[in-house]
Amino acid sequence: AAAFERRVLRRAAEHHYLRVRLELPDGGARPNAAQFKQLVVTALRELHGEVGAALPVDVLIYEEKTLSAILRVISSGFVKLWSALTLLGFYQNRRCAFRVLQTSPFLLALSGNSRELVL
Amino acid sequence: QSILTVCFSVGYSAVALNHVIDFKEKKQEIIKPVSPSELFPSLPIVQGTSKRIKVLTRLTLVVSDPSHCNLLRSTSANIRLYDIIAVFPKTEKLFHIACTTLDVDLVCINVTEKLPFYFRRPPVNMAIDRGIYFELLYTPAIKDSTMRRYTISNAISLMQICKGKNIVISSAAERPLELRGPYDVANLGLLFGLSEGEAKAAVSTNCRAAMLHGETRKSACGVVYTVKKPRQVEEEETAVPACKKAKTQ
């Protein structure tokens, strides 16, 4: 029997990735990529102040048609970002909601979604 | 009805529709709850399992006077039709009464104003022993920034006293956009000071326990249990007929 060694790494991932979708039901102007990033930073500022707004968040992919994006945030700020996105209510005085579809510490894991499996 | 459709798509497995009764106005009658089967002829199936989504009905009583609690004791036929009963106390005395003697499932904690009373440990511990859950709402936090501060400060003071046990987080959503998914709400629990396991329980296991508490409240009128009696040694050898054997009740 070959001897094997098991290593468990806790909190080793540097970044956390989130796939989110913004729901804007009224048919108004859709935000472009820069405005989307501004919205995320505003959400962080409203909930966690200047320190939250300074959190290094990147928008890796943004699709304007479906208003869905993949965000990357440093692992220590993951809870702050997610809670800020959850509690955001308004975009330019229009009601909106963020739906977080998938989160993972690995970007590859965001490619498959078992909830959208059509059996 | 559109709110419920969104609930199902986001991934909840049981939803409760709330009616709020306020006692400040003069004439208040408890109306019959809207039966869920009227809204949806057939409920969709929960993602990932093969069971259908449950839709329950819930009543919230806003009490600001001890005489309002008499309604709970009266056996009004309409109260029994609701699955879950919640009470919203406005004063410290009523909070104490609700935790210790009232027959409810949930005690709502006000998140829209600064609490007029401080939580004390004895009534909270008694409520935890009785199986009553404390409820926090998160939808006001989405609408207004002052409400956000009150929500978080009230939640933190509750956590300090009850150490995160028996908490249920729910939404008072009036529009489908004010609803958030279950994992998002569990993340909010982390903001309030719960640990990760407690936060997830606040959305899943505690809610289910509150539902079961409501069911037992509706159904239990008395409890029968059997106790094994030690067998007495028979001196005679003749077989005792079955009807004479000691019946254990």
Automatic annotation (TrEMBL), chain A:
Keyword ATP-binding appears in the UniProt entry: no
Cellular component, GO annotation: multimeric ribonuclease P complex; nucleolus
InterPro entries named in the record: Pop5/Rpp14/Rnp2-like, Rnp2-like_sf
Name the UniProt record assigns to this protein: RPP14 protein
Pfam families: RNase_P_Rpp14
Domain of life of the native organism: Eukaryota
GO BP term, example: tRNA 5'-leader removal
Keywords assigned: tRNA processing
One GO MF term: ribonuclease P RNA binding
KW tRNA-binding (keyword) present: no
Originating species: Rhabdornis inornatus
Matching Gene3D superfamilies: Ribonuclease P, Pop5 subunit
Family: Belongs to the eukaryotic/archaeal RNase P protein component 2 family.
TrEMBL record, chain B:
GO molecular function (one): RNA binding
Gene Ontology cellular component terms for the protein in this record: nucleolar ribonuclease P complex
Alphabetical list of Gene3D superfamilies matching this protein: Metal-dependent hydrolases
SUPFAM superfamilies hit by this protein: PHP domain-like (SSF89550)
The UniProt record lists the keyword Repressor: no
Localization annotation: Nucleus, Nucleolus
Signal peptide start and end residues: none
Coiled coil segments of this chain: none
Gene Ontology terms describing biological process: rRNA processing; tRNA processing
Family of the protein in this entry: Belongs to the eukaryotic/archaeal RNase P protein component 3 family.
Function: Component of ribonuclease P, a ribonucleoprotein complex that generates mature tRNA molecules by cleaving their 5'-ends. Also a component of the MRP ribonuclease complex, which cleaves pre-rRNA sequences.
Subunit structure: Component of nuclear RNase P and RNase MRP ribonucleoproteins. RNase P consists of a catalytic RNA moiety and about 10 protein subunits; POP1, POP4, POP5, POP7, RPP14, RPP21, RPP25, RPP30, RPP38 and RPP40. Within the RNase P complex, POP1, POP7 and RPP25 form the 'finger' subcomplex, POP5, RPP14, RPP40 and homodimeric RPP30 form the 'palm' subcomplex, and RPP21, POP4 and RPP38 form the 'wrist' subcomplex. All subunits of the RNase P complex interact with the catalytic RNA. Several subunits of RNase P are also part of the RNase MRP complex.
Protein name as catalogued: Ribonuclease P protein subunit p30
Species this chain originates from: Rhabdornis inornatus
This protein's encoding gene: Rpp30
